[in-house]
Design goal:
73 residues; mainly alpha; 3 helices; 59% helix
């Protein structure tokens, strides 16, 4: 992983670049696997959050949430 890619990933994850320095030594196929796992975990967490919001809030309050957190149903 190049320094530019590492810095970009750190910025996307809101982490200090040095905290991801161990990833620099991974082969490309392991980095792809790692990225897929992180993406799946984030999608799962976002789905759970949307479900919990749908259960907990009445619809008028949902309108106050940022569009990204509103249910897509």
């Amino acid at each position: 992983m190049s320094q530019t890619e590492l810095q970009s990933l750190a910025q996307a994850l809101r982490r200090p670049p040095l905290s991801l320095s161990p990833l620099a030594g991974l082969p490309p196929e392991q980095l792809v696997w790692f990225e897929q796992q992180v993406r799946q975990a984030c999608q799962h967490a976002e789905s759970e959050l949307r479900r919990d919001i749908d259960k907990a809030l009445p619809w008028p309050l949902k309108l106050l949430l940022p569009g990204r957190l509103r249910s897509r149903s």
